[in-house]
Amino acid sequence: MSSIWRGVIPAITTPFLEDMTVDHVFLARHCQWLVENGCTGVVALGSLGEGATLTFEEKRAVLETCVAAIGDHATVISGVSALSTDEAVRIAKMSKEAGCHGLMVLPPYVYVGDWREMKAHVAAVLEATDLPSMLYNNPIAYKVDFLPHQVAELMDEYPATMVAIKESSADVRRIAALRALVGERLEILCGVDDLIVEAVYAGATGWIAGLVNAFPRESVDLFNHALAGEKAKAAAIYQWFLPLLRMDVVPKFVQLIKLVQELVGMGNRRVRAPRLAIEGVELAQAEATFEKAAFEKATLAEAMKIKG
Asked: Mind listing the domains of the chain with CATH numbers?
């Protein structure tokens, strides 16, 4: 199996300048900072990256910036999502031209089809390039559920390109079900921030993460402790981090994660319409959650320092 699917891989946010154009200078610096802190690559143009609000040329430019920033020493994976299959295929081909190392393949926006239709859509993307691909299964958000036997069917028909899955059903039992059908042929990555420890214990070997955009080192430490079976160390981080990780699984996850980036000094809260930055009670609650987590994190660090 390809090692590009292992470790902590941020689903990166797309930064915007005051005029709401993409901030490519910060984007490059952010990618480099994530990798410097132990992340093994990035996924661009996903839901967290507000891919649906970016034009085709903006998507190309984002990918080219990511590849130029880290492409020689870390993985750049392109999110492939579109209203139509033709557009998804076009994005896949452009992603390869831009120098990406892999694809994250989503079901089509808006239309929720049956298995025959969804399989045809995914197959068209898999056939468009020779890049290794990760299927994104998120029935909660996209209302399309790729069941384990369907994933196995795709793997059997496209063994060279269908090699990984971002499993975001929030059902940790899916990991065992997938392993039972396809063994170690499939890389299984958790796509739900507040389920990562449980997913690793169940057998996931990668994490497509959200809050990592603000806390890369802490995310990598959490993942590595869980993977190594260092349960006490993982639990200590999970305890203060979990309230923040839960921000990844609510409708305004983009606004919340970008806010946390701003609070740690690595980004800003700007989002493209129809999203609007949170305010009022929502903002106060989010800031209180951040402040509590930051205090508990600092307390833990001090205790570890005293312990030696």
From this structure: 3-228 (3.20.20.70)
